C-alpha cells in the first residue's frame, strides 16, 4: 500500500513542496510515468487557483491584472498524478491523521499545511471597512484601483504593521514600500503627482530612521509618518488616540500576519503569535508526520530580520520535502533550512535587490547588480519562468 500524503493549500509553499518531493519529469510522459513509479498517493486540498502575489503591486502601474496573476493549478497537479480536492479545510484531528473539510474528511500518513497567512484585521478598528490591502488578492486590489482611478487629487496613506510575537517579521514591509514607490511612478506618468499627497506610515519604523528604502521614499516626495499607528481607521481618514483626525481619501494598509483562526480549535500546535508552531525541520511541534511551511508557519529561533516571503517558503518546503520522505521511510528528519531575505523592490523606473542571509551568501552568486532599473526586468523574468513552469511542466 502506498503511503498517503495530504497537502493543504495551493500557494507557493505547497507547490514548492511538490516540486522537491517529486522527481522532475517533463510533460506528456509525466502522467503515465508517475502512475507507474509513484511512491505515494498524494492529495491536495485547495481552491485550484494559484495567486502570484509578488506581482500584485504592479496593478498600480497597470502592468499586471487579475488574469495575469492567477493560474489554474489543476493541470499541474494532474500531470503529477496528484488528486485535487476542491474544498476548504476547517479542522485537523486525531494528531494530524484526519483532515476535516467543509464537505468531507480525509485520512493521511503525512500531512503538510501550506495554508498561507491570516491577517490581524481586528488589531486596528476599521481596518476591514476603511482600508484596502494588496495582501487580500487581486479582487481587493481591483477595488483599490477603481477608487484610485476615480480620484483626480487627494491624500493617500500607505502603511504596514508587523506581528512581532514570534520573533520575526510577520508582516508585509517590502511589498508595501514597493506599492508606495509604484504609486508615485503611476501618478507621475499621469501627470497628476502634484495633486496627491502620499504618506507612508508604520509603527514598526522609528521616527528619523534612515536606510536605502527610506531614501527611495524621500527621493519621491513621500511623507514619512514613521512610528505612527492610527487608533482607528474611519471614513475619510485615520483617527489618533487623542481623537484628532488625519484626512485620507484612500488607505492601503497591510496588518500583521498570523495563522488561520481555525487552527486554535484543532490539534495543531499554535505559536504565541498564532502561527503553526514548527521546529527547525518544519515539523509541527508535538505531532508525528505533520509539517508546515510558508506564511502560516513560525520558525524555531529565527533571526529577527527574517520575513514571510515566497523565497523563504521555497527554502522551508525544500527541507520539509526531504524530511517528509525520511519520516515516511522510518528515518529521523535531518534537513534544516537557511534564512534568507531576498527580493527585488520594483519601483518601475528603478530597482533594488534587498538581501540578507544567515550564512552571508549573496543572491545568485552576485551576478546581478544590487541597484538598477534592469532588476525590474529580472523580477518579471522570474515571474514568467515560474508561471511557465506551472502551466506547462
Ligand atoms: C503584495 C505582495 C507582494 C509580495 N511580493 C513578494 C516578493 O516580491 N518576493 C517574495 O518572495 N514574496 C513576496 N510576497 C510574499 C509571498 O507572496 C508569500 O510569502 C507567499 O505567497 C507565501 O506562500 P504560502 O504558500 O505560504 O501562502 P499563499 O501563497 O498565500 O498560499 C496559501 C494557499 O492556501 C490556501 N488555503 C488557505 N486556507 C485554506 C484552507 N483552510 N483550506 C484549503 N486551502 C487553504 C489558499 O487558497 C492558497 O492556495 C508578496 C506578498 C504580497 C501580498
Structure in words:
This protein has 393 residues and is an alpha/beta fold. The protein has two domains: 3-117 and 259-338, FAD/NAD(P)-binding domain (3-Layer(bba) Sandwich); 120-257, FAD/NAD(P)-binding domain. Helix content is 27%, strand content 23%. It has ten helices and 21 strands. It has helices at residues 12-21, 30-37, 66-69, 74-79, 127-130, 138-149, 174-189, 212-219, 310-328, 374-392, and strands spanning 3-8, 40-46, 49-51, 70-72, 83-86, 89-93, 98-101, 105-107, 110-113, 118-119, 154-160, 196-202, 223-226, 232-234, 237-239, 245-247, 250-254, 257-258, 290-292, 340-346, 351-357. The chain has a five-stranded parallel β-sheet with strand order 5-2-1-9-19. Strand 14 and strand 15 form a beta hairpin. Helix 1 (12-21) packs across helix 9. The two termini are 28 Å apart.
Task: Quickly give the structural class.
Answer: alpha/beta
**Which descriptor suits the 3D outline?**
globular
Supply Rg: 21 Å
Number of E-type strands: 21
Bound compounds, please? flavin-adenine dinucleotide
Q: Count of helices?
A: 10
Q: How many domains would you count in the coordinates?
A: 2
